[in-house]
Amino acid sequence: MSVTILFLGPLRDLAGRQEIEVDAPLDWAGLLAAVGPEVAEQLEQKRVNVACRGRVRADKRALLAEDGDEVALLPPVSGG
Amino acid sequence: MARLSLSTPLDVRLLDKGMSVGEALAAFNATHAEAGGIATFLGKVRPDGEVRALELSHYEPLTLAGMEELAGNARERFDLDGVLVWHRVGVMVPGEAIVLIAAAARHRRSAFEAADFLMDHLKSAAWFWKRERRADGWHWIEPRPEDHEDRERWK
Lengths: 80, 155
What we know:
The complex is a heterodimer. Chain A is of the alpha+beta class. Chain A has a single domain (2-74), classed as Beta-grasp domain (Ubiquitin-like (UB roll)), CATH 3.10.20. Helix content of chain A is 26%, strand content 32%. In chain A, the strands form 2 sheets. Chain A has a 5-stranded mixed beta sheet. Chain A has a two-stranded antiparallel ribbon with strand order 3-6. In chain A, strand 4 (49-52) and strand 5 (55-56) form a beta hairpin. Chain A is globular, with a radius of gyration of 11 Å. The termini of chain B are far apart. Chain B has one domain (10-152): Aldehyde Oxidoreductase, domain 3, CATH 3.90.1170.40. Chain B has helices spanning 21-31, 60-78, 108-125, 145-152, and strands spanning 10-15, 37-44, 53-58, 82-88, 90-92, 97-105, 128-134, 137-140. The longest helix of chain B is centred in the middle third of the chain and has 19 residues, at 60-78. The radius of gyration of chain B is 16 Å and the shape is globular. Classes of the chains: A alpha+beta, B alpha+beta. At the A-B interface, strand 7 of A face helix 2, helix 3 and strand 7 of B.
């Protein structure tokens, strides 16, 4: 049973892929371990957000993703 | 010719192909016949010499919902009759349209301010990631401090 982790924007290049599947459930420590040291370092920064089930988490460290959930890693945006 | 039909009061779209600016504004004008004025802004890929292409990516579950919320906030804050927010995603070349904003209001000041407010938020608070292709490959664009300062003005 799995959780999909999605790498958005520049994190995709850093991770070297668009998404990975990991075992559910997934918490913050599990996420940091799953994404590799480079992305984990980015995740520790305040400016990187985490969404779960299509909602941005107010406290990303309290993440608890369950089977079938999609966790999106969101670096700082640059639109318009 | 059938006219483009817009949702009211908010018409918010993500487009993965070209943007038909004239058609959008004609429809917006017709849709908001009671407005005293309409302010519009068209953002384009700047022909900067080095830049050959620009790519905008987004995250489906967040990006459109965020734009809709922003348009709703603008409508309430500036007492608008209607708002149009269209944003491109995908690959664009210099000179191509990226974003089209239109705000219809009873009076011009609200329309101008709403367009400004919408752009400041789209630049630094909407879920888009931008990269440019130059001669040596693709480069991700970091948000600029000015973009955040622009947004702070509305707090």
